[in-house]
Amino acid sequence: MLQPSDAPEQSQSLPSTFNFLTATQVVSTTLNCTTSQVTCKASARSNSMPSNARYFRNDAPLSRRDPHKQLIASLTRLVTDYPPASIPPGGGLYFGPVSIAYLFFILQPVYQDLEIEGRPMGAWSAAYLQQAQDHMGEYPGPSTRRCGVSDDIMALLALGAALAKDADLAQELCAYAAVTTDPAAGDEWLYGRAGYLYLLRLVRASFATPDVDDDAGKRVRRMLADTADEVVEAIMESGRPWKWHGKAYVGAVHGSVGIVTQIVLTDPSWAPKLEADLGALLSYEFPSGNWPSSIPADRDRLVQFCHGAAGIVASLLSIRQYFPNLHDRIDGAIRRGRACIVERGLLTKEPCLCHGISGNALALEDAEFEHFLTYTTGHEMKGMAKDGILEKSDHPSSLWCGEAGRAWTWAVADRELEKRFPGYNDV
Ligand SMILES: [Zn+2]
Fold first, then answer.
1. Of 349, 359, 389, 412, which is the most buried if we count CB atoms within 10 A?
2. In angstroms, what is the span from residue 8 Cα to ligand 1's centroid?
3. Alpha helix locations (H) across 135-283?
4. 86 CA to middle of ligand 1, Å?
5. For residue 272, is the peptide bond before it cis, meaning its omega torsion is within 30 degrees of 0?
6. What's the CA angle centered on 37, arms 35 and 43, to 5 degrees?
């Protein structure tokens, strides 16, 4: 059974004697160090860090690495350590072969002349997509419990439609509205309707480019917009607060900020009707600048994209323009959220977009963003692993939980791209 590696229910299932250190305990036991004193920042901390520390103290002076060099290194590790045939099927745009194909798909227009191990971005995208297609028969297909961005069939259809600008594939994707508008379907991004809205938007963007025939493009965009309307109406008719597995999550992956963001990026005309939902979400912020994973609020614990400040800050930055009445509150929330990420965001989990340093970096401004990325190099990760302080990923190759996501952040730094999350707010 597919389980998000980030869900807070994992910690709730730990034995009650399990001792999660509080933030204060962790940082009070870490060493001060500077990059001039040591070659590996993480190693400098390992001697004094308890093995279950959640994050490093962020006390080194701001620094940066050459992002182009790091991008090449990351992509080379990706295709050599995890070649297409080695990637287990499953995971949609979140992990697995489709997620890696999507990384190369979005890098292709930015790096038209770049080759990794002798092959251009487009060829790598096709190779990982082929791996997914070869296993298509093993995918169960969307159900009301699993119909978001992690669904393989719908992600394959969306990427196929976007790549080939294929109206038939777009229509097949739209036909799954029968599943996603079922009253039993979930609303969140990873397994629910909000993720389906993203897939529709991805295809819509590919049919809005100058090389698409006007009439054909209009027809497909109309079909996608009509489908999105039905799905948004189903989400809006869901009772509040929106729930996933019986809990009212707040964050980007399973919660209300992810749902609001996907609706508004798909059709901004819904924003006035979502003002109360967003206002409530802003009110949940802890004094620390972080947000609870779910409501009623529990501990102030996780600072990452899926749960906590990073996903909420990244979402607010994307949708701010559509909520003029909330600008002051949004700006304050972003400022406090970023300060919290700077303080508590250097996580010991393997750096990734969903619950790691790479995703936290994308929520920050340039200097801090580049500083955070210095903790995601191959050298740093080796040092952390050697010292036993790296919590390894279950999906180390993937876009949201591994190397492909780290590569994306280096590309953002290298080409000064907008700090977006592929599969979430990049279209
Ligand atoms: Zn996560």
1. 359
2. 9
3. 152-164, 167-175, 177-180, 193-206, 214-237, 256-266, 271-283
4. 23
5. no
6. 75
If you measure from the C-alpha of residue 305 to the centroid of ligand 1, how many angstroms do you get, rounded to a whole number?
A: 6
Q: Find the 50 Cα to ligand 1 centroid distance in Å.
A: 22
- Of 75, 118, 121, the C-alpha closest to 101 is 121
How far does CA 152 lie from the centroid of its chain? 17
Q: How far, in Å, is the centroid of ligand 1 from the Cα of 306?
A: 4
Distance 7 CA to ligand 1 centre (A): 7
CA 221 to centroid of ligand 1, rounded, Å: 32
Q: How many residues does the chain have?
A: 427
Which residues does 189 contact at the CB level (< 8 Å), separation at least 6? Answer: 148, 149, 195, 198, 252, 253, 254, 258, 259, 262, 424
Distance, in Å, from the CA atom of 384 to the CA atom of 381, rounded to the nearest integer, reads: 5
* pLDDT tens digits for range 89-143: 999 999 999 999 999 999 999 999 999 999 999 999 999 999 999 998 989 899 9
- 145: amino acid identity, one letter: R
Q: Nearest 5°: phi and psi at 124? A: -65, -40
Ion ligand 1: residues, CB < 5 A: 6, 306, 354-355
For 2-11, write each residue's pLDDT tens digit: 344 444 433 3
pTM: 0.90
Compute the distance from residue 311 Cα to the ligand 1 centre, in Å.
Answer: 10
Cα–Cα distance between 39 and 283 in angstroms, integer? 42
Collapsed DSSP state (helix, strand, coil) of residue 231:
helix
**What does the block give as tokens for 152?**
């393989």
Q: Is the dihedral of CA 13, 16, 21, 22 positive or negative?
A: positive
